[in-house]
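<discrete_fold_record>
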Amino acid sequence: MSVVAGSAHATSFTLTSPTSGGTVAAGISPVGGIVLDLIGLNDTRVTSQLAANQLFQGFYSNNPGNIGTQTGFTSAITGALGGGLKQAAIRFTLYDGDTAAGDFDFNDNRLRLNGLNFGNWSSVNAQNTDANGNAGSAGFSSGGFRNDTLDTGWFSSSDAALLTSFYNSVVNTQQVVYQVDDVDPGENFYDFTQGISSNFTNVGQGPTVQPPSNAVPEPFTILGSLTAGGIGVALRRKRQKQEKEAAKV
């Protein structure tokens, strides 16, 4: 999928979450920002995108360093997830990340959400794209966000203990704080808008709920369907009886 019609190099990787939800919701850009994809214990899906121009720019003077904060996780949003999470995935786009093999931050950085460790930046298989999200010539990193390269990749977890702690933190704070935890902070310049089309740098959306495709209708809906079906059967029988009586005349 690509915003550039007819491109021979379009990629679906950046728009396909590693969760069971697969393709992300409409309105999420193919590159840029931070995309969060949550799958609840009841298979309800919640997605959000924090715009690239809302993210940190510069050198970190503290550790861990705040990348950005996604708000909007109201009780109505978290309450739709069935009391917890079974899967989570987080998409980042970063130019010159320097966490691939041979780069100076290889195996030095961890991603934190609400203070919880969601993985090593060097373990994420990221794909190089152009500014519009079309597949780039550098292909996949096989681990890490590369030097002088625009890469997009997905962190993911299905660890029950981690997701329980994360879910509780979101319920309590109604937000998600994204941070980079660096063994030796202050050596890398971060700009999450660099290399991205200006069409995408301000694209973002608050948390949105997507019910599971196999969701069972509410009781009143089922009752309404049964009532309507019963009325339909009665009307058909009455019409058939009238037709038979008319045929005898």
Q: What stands out?
A: Residues 1-8, 220-226 have pLDDT under 50 and may be disordered.
